[in-house]
Amino acid sequence: MDFGGDVEQQQEAFGDLGLLLLLALALVYMVMASQFENLLDPFVIMFSVPFAFVGVVWAFLITGTTLSMTSFLGLIMLMGIVVNNAIVFVDYTNILRKRGMELKEAVMAAGRRRLRPVLMTAFTTIFGMLPLALMRSTGAEVWRPLGVAMVGGLLVSTIVTLVLVPTLYSIVEARLRRNARWSR
């Protein structure tokens, strides 16, 4: 059996969007690596991206939404927002460490001082997408998946950014210091 017509076009479009998503992930990582001038900080930041996808899947299951072209575009947009929230935390932690703070103290201070910007970014996007996710009018079947993807992904990724990213940052930095002492 061979599928054609709309199904064939949909498969090609999803393949293209999947390639676009991988390319966007690689480009975001490369830009962050050049900005941070190391490879580990972007890795810590990119750690929050898969959890955004988990949030999208949960939101789709809860709302009964299916993956569509617009929801896939929402995934690509979501990746940039999620990465931005983690960058805010990691960059400020690095600034505090360069000013002479110890690792634990810098992570805790960055968590306190960057909680508000991260939450503001997440909540403004969530509240902006909520009408789209809840709409029931004509044309809702086209745009609703985008809103559901953005809201679900941001809810989970914000928690990950605030809890798991600082934890992973602390673990990676502590191991780097330990390995640096052993190599001497």
The gyration radius over C-alpha positions equals: 19 Å
Helix-strand pattern: HHHHHH
How many beta strands in the DSSP annotation?
Answer: 0
What fraction strand?
under 5%
CATH topology: Multidrug efflux transporter AcrB transmembrane fold
The CATH superfamily is Multidrug efflux transporter AcrB transmembrane domain
The CATH architecture can be named as: Up-down Bundle
Alpha carbon gap, first and last residue: 64 Å
Low-confidence segments, given as residue ranges, are none
Largest sheet: none
Tally of discrete structural domains:
1
Mean pLDDT metric: 87
Could you explain how this protein is built, in words?
With 184 residues, the chain is mostly helical. Helices cover 86% and strands 0% of the residues. Helix 2 (40-46) packs antiparallel against helix 6, helix 3 runs antiparallel to helix 4 (69-98) and helix 3 runs antiparallel to helix 6. The chain has one domain (6-183): Up-down Bundle (Multidrug efflux transporter AcrB transmembrane fold). The protein is elongated, with a radius of gyration of 19 Å. The protein contains six helices and no strands.
